[in-house]
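Table 4 source record.
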Amino acid sequence: MPRMQTREEATKKYKKLLIFAFKKSLNKLFFIAYKNLFKNLYKSIYKFIAVYYNIFEVKAMNKNMYSLMLMDEVVQAIDKLASENYTNRSSLINQILAEYVSLTTPQQRTKEIFGSLISLMRSAEAFEVQDGTNTSVLSMKSALSYRYRPTIRYAVELYEKSGQSFGELRVTFRSQSSNLLMELTHFLNMFIRLERHYIHPYFAKGSIDYRLEEGRFRRSFAWPKNENLHTPEHLGTLIGNYIHMFDDMLKQYMGEKLTSFRELEDLYLTYLESGMSAI
């Protein structure tokens, strides 16, 4: 016959059983916790992928999330057309619906402004407009009459949601010449000085902003004071006229046709007095 367990042996046995049961319960709790963690992580990753591939429209600015029931054939045709136009499914559907109800979207407004700007800039031999896939930025370049003919790159960006400014001009000078960069910086400082004196008083504070770095210049565009000039066609023309003026003044200064601040000022005033609206 098996011998009876002593109290100490029984206590030790039940203690082991309790420890085993506790560990098993603890492992189950950890398993549930990890399961929920990975479940939430999966949802987050899926949501990110869904947003990226436009399965949903995520709230951004004045956009909201909507669910649409579409035929597979329609989605395939939309995706094909979106790819051809360098856009995505949501943007294209938004554009199609906006056009159907005669509503101008920020993207359509940008496209119309750039269309006006491109027509103006391509009529000038000094500029080469670069076609790109970025729908909010238009780039062009011009050669500077200087040793090795360095390139000036202009980039116009229009803001989707504008306040006192509706866009900006970025100018980049590609050169390793320290003398050239020094002369360019000197010109830009004089140009900023002219604008702050002659046009800043007519605009709200902060609507025209500058950023000047070595080989780079940024300048924001303020809305024209005349609201009749807020149309895409007029805005494209105003941006083009401004770039023409800047480019002409820069090239005349670097070509030593303008040798003093006074001569630069006279040319600037000639542009303003010709009827060019400030932005």
